[in-house]
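Dear colleague,

Following up on Tuesday's group meeting, I ran the structure prediction for the two-component complex that the binding team flagged. I've pasted the input sequences exactly as they went in, so you can double-check that nothing got truncated or mislabelled along the way. The structure tokens for the whole assembly follow below. Feel free to forward this to whoever is handling the docking comparison.

Inputs:
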Amino acid sequence: MSTTTPPTPGTNGAHPVVKSAGRVVDFVDQRITASNWLKRNMRKVFPDHWSFLLGEIALYSFILLLLSGVFLTLWFKPSMAHVYYDGAYVPMRGILISEAYASTLDLSFEVRGGLLMRQVHHWSTLVFLAAMSVHMLRIFFTGAFRKPRELNWLIGVLLLVLGVANGFTGYSLPDDLLSGTGLRIIEGGVLAVPVVGTYLSYFIFGGEYPGEDIISRLYPIHILLVPGLILALVVAHLMMIWYQKHTHWGGAGKTDENVVGYPFFPIYVAKAGGFNFIVFGFIFLMAATIQVNPLWFWGPYDPSQVTAGTQPDWYVGFLDGALRVMPPWELDIFGYNLTLSVLIPALVLPGLILVPLALYPWLEQKVTGDTREHHVLDRPRNVPVRTGLGVAFIVFYILLWIAGGNDFFATVLNMPVNWISRFLQFSIILMPPLAFWITKRICLGLQRRDRDKVLHGRETGTIMVSPSGEFTERHAPLSVGEAYALTAHERREPIEPGPATDPNGIPNPAYKRERRQARLSRFYFGDVVQKPTREELEHTHHDGHGEITEGDTRDQSAAGDHIASGQQ
Amino acid sequence: MSRSSSGRGGRWLSRVLSTRRRHPLAAVAVLLVALFACGSAYAALSPSTVPAAVSQTAQSTQVEEGRQLFAIGCASCHGLGGEGLVREDGTVIGPSLVGVGAASVDFQVGTGRMPMAAPAAQAPRKPVAYDDEQIAALAAFVASLAPGPEIPDDAMLDTSADTVDIARGGLLFRTNCAQCHNTTGQGGALTYGQEAPNLTGVEAKHIYEAMRTGPQAMPVFNDELLTPEDKLDIIAYLENVESQPDPGGLGIGRAGPVSEGLWAWLVGIGGLIAFAAWIVTRSASARSSS
């Protein structure tokens, strides 16, 4: 495209600098022959849509996490050895605190730029995980996880889990009262593991909780192990996107065989690079103006102290909420306790969420029986059941979130915390199905509207009075592009099971499986509003005038004007 | 006295007394003289009794005034004598105030918690219904029922004293108070509509009294559990925290991760998505220029 060196005006030949640069490039190219590969990849096309940038937000905040994290490691001391604090923060002077907490106080009050970097690190964590979550929702609702991208979906789920894990270890490192209380809850979860719980806890904490080891053990996990894994998986994630190409929204000229968009170089290099700095700048702005985790207020960790208002960061909040609303169930098996009230929310629930989430691409494939590749995204309304399931999950998750802050909301709303918890216990069971049903209805309604639009055109709001005094509304036909976008998706008919017996009366051995699949398929696509067929479309076009005289207000006006106002 | 004798007055008097000593009114006259002498002697020999008598009258009028205020504003729940009212089924309408002391009244009425607007799980802080004199009268009346914690004097609340240790106060606060009031005194929810109130902006005297008397759901921290010095350190810590600026920027409630999460989603991701949507609109000009 263009080089950074401008050509000298007035001369036909290139500038000597350009010439010599060209010679160097040529020299390299003749030896490693990369120019074709480069040309192909530099010109790689990516589609443009705001929702495709959510993953980029996650990527850039992760880079910022690495950078600010390196800064913090220069001062942080991962040690639980106790020292008398004598630093700048007066209300802590003379108190016996751990070195980890003391060094974090020093970072906040004495290291130049330390507080800013701490806040950058914390805010970018919160943004990183939020960006990953909305990115994942985007992928889910648009069906971008379908073949061939199932593996990348799996990597994404892993990244989210690793992100949460690293967030939590980081939250635990400063050894303040909040982080210690968080670890105490983790210890409770570990203790609830049947049979080996106690041993596991002793193993993790190096003896009786809290011990002297946990901070120095979490430290390498937080700064080396998990970030390394995340980095490796991010690279794999991006390489697969590059290799498999990006998905795009349906529309004129966009198919499963092509990608319509702009080339990576120069458009996306500029846009992505620019967006990188926007994300950096935005997070820095937040860190410079909004205080996050003022741990000098919380005080040093002491197992004998637990404060009101103890909450984890938002990404662990749903687990805390599950713990809070869980009824106090406990089983007594031969004198051994099985603490279901901890076991279920702390260990069973994450499994119940993560396994279906990770396997969803395959589950849906099972239902649809569709093993083709897909590169055009689904509009969420066109797969009402998937969209409904997604919204039901969001509602479930948000309710658990609220449960995690039930004391906070009790104070803010001035309601008894017991009522809030009781209400949540019921709504966690009842609301997700309700949300599913409502979402599915809305999707079907939107599909019906799309269908009407394709068949009858867009309502113009212009009311016509016929000579006989009848009022009708003019409908303007859609442009070809619009109509194409509305009908680009496939008709999805539920699968019918084969006959139970073949013509000779021999029972079909796979019948039961087929019937099960058909039932699931009917659940998914049984009441989908289909896009109009060619016949339906031609029928409305041809019979338009006839219907006007028949006097069916809705169809006649639409179909009639479709042709009459074709010039509009 | 019909006869006068100038030179021998003494004899005359003794004669008169001796001749009239059997007079029917003699005993009355002697009694009067003796009473007068005793009275005068008492008045002359005990001068301090006069102001004491005055202040006693004043105190009894203050108690009396308190009793009257109490009968109007408090007795419907606490009973006319402050003995408390309990329904037959055992529900307490108002607890007994015998022995709660002046500190309790000064706290409950001085922060507007009493009188309550309506029976509820908890009496919230609200505008004070009585003036200082009336509160003092009520306190005097309740204190007169039985001895109890007294209102702390200013010397006990002097947080600028040299012996005050803020860091120690913080440690004590986290150990004894933060379970309910949060580490910075932001307060928190308790069961069934009760709550530990926010301590921001509460007078030192009231915090002291609350610790001493244990209002509502709060436990009593008597002077053996937390000595007056401990209490003063705690108050000093709270004052320090309250006056501390937020070095990191907006405090967003100092309420910890819940509000941080809200900000991360609403401002953080919300703002960045807005930027993403904006940067996508830049493609048109990028296309036209390339």
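Strands of chain B lie at 85-86, 92-94, 188-189, 195-196.

Cheers,
M.
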